[in-house]
Amino acid sequence: MSQHNDDKAKLALIGVCRFRFGTDGTGITTLIGFHGCPLSCRYCLNPQSISPTAELLYISPMDLYKELAKDELYFLGTGGGVTFGGGEPLIHIDDIQRLIALGADRWKITIETSLNVPLDNLIKVSLIADEFIVDVKDLDPQIYNKYTGTNLDNVVRNLKWLAENGHHDKVLIRLPLIPCFNTEEDRENSEIALRQMGFHKFNKFTYIVR
């Protein structure tokens, strides 16, 4: 794959990572990292995804599809597939739909998202997504705002929509313990609220801050 920084018609990615196992859902996956995110997290795990000076990979949907297809046997043999992450993939819903139209729906599609996006974007991708990995951060509005620099309204609305429309079984929610921002009690309160919505799959871990 080559870089073409002068071609704005192509997908703008922070990278494509092949042969991931057990990190982005089941099986062997390829992670597609989109550039751009509505959040400004204090400990961003992928700071290049929001950097205006990041060196990006520009690639056409067809060229990316061909690159993904190289690993089809691994996807089908292990129950893996393609994970759209970033950054925030759901602000690039048109690009995702173009890849699906080319044939990417043959593979398992996972969306790794903050859910801080318009509801219409979520509804569109719900028709093609097999799994969601939702990085909630924390469901306390003040903690969320202090950490991400934005409000929680979109996230809560979108979580409720997923639960009310029967998607809760395919949602894995990440609940981090974030040093200097939330406590174990805060995280427990978030989990209780999420369970009340109908979610039951959680990934709890602690951010390592250097």
Notes on the structure:
The protein has 210 residues and is α/β, with parallel strands linked by helices. Helix content is 32%, strand content 23%. The protein is built from 7 helices and 8 strands; from the N terminus they run E-E-E-H-H-E-H-E-H-E-H-H-E-H-E. The chain has an 8-stranded mixed β-sheet. Strand 1 and strand 2 (28-34) form a beta hairpin. The protein is globular. The two termini are 33 Å apart.
Could you spell the SSE succession in H and E letters? EEEHHEHEHEHHEHE
Bin the helical content.
Answer: 25-40%
Counting DSSP H or I runs of 4 or more residues, the number of helices is 7
Q: Can you summarize the main beta sheet?
A: 8 strands, mixed
Number of strands: 8
Radius of gyration: 17 Å
Give the overall shape, derived from the CA principal axes.
Answer: globular
The neighbouring-strand order within the major sheet is 3-1-2-4-5-6-7-8
Strand content: 15-25%
Low-confidence stretches: 1-7
From the N-terminal CA to the C-terminal CA, the straight-line distance is 33 Å
- The average pLDDT value, as a whole number, equals 93
- Return the structural class: alpha/beta
Q: Mind sketching the topology for me?
A:
Elements: E1 11-21, E2 28-34, E3 57-59, H1 61-69, H2 72-78, E4 81-85, H3 93-102, E5 108-113, H4 119-126, E6 131-135, H5 141-148, H6 153-164, E7 171-177, H7 184-197, E8 202-206
Parallel strand pairs: 2-4, 4-5, 5-6, 6-7, 7-8
Antiparallel strand pairs: 1-2, 1-3
Summarize the structure.
The two termini are about 35 Å apart.
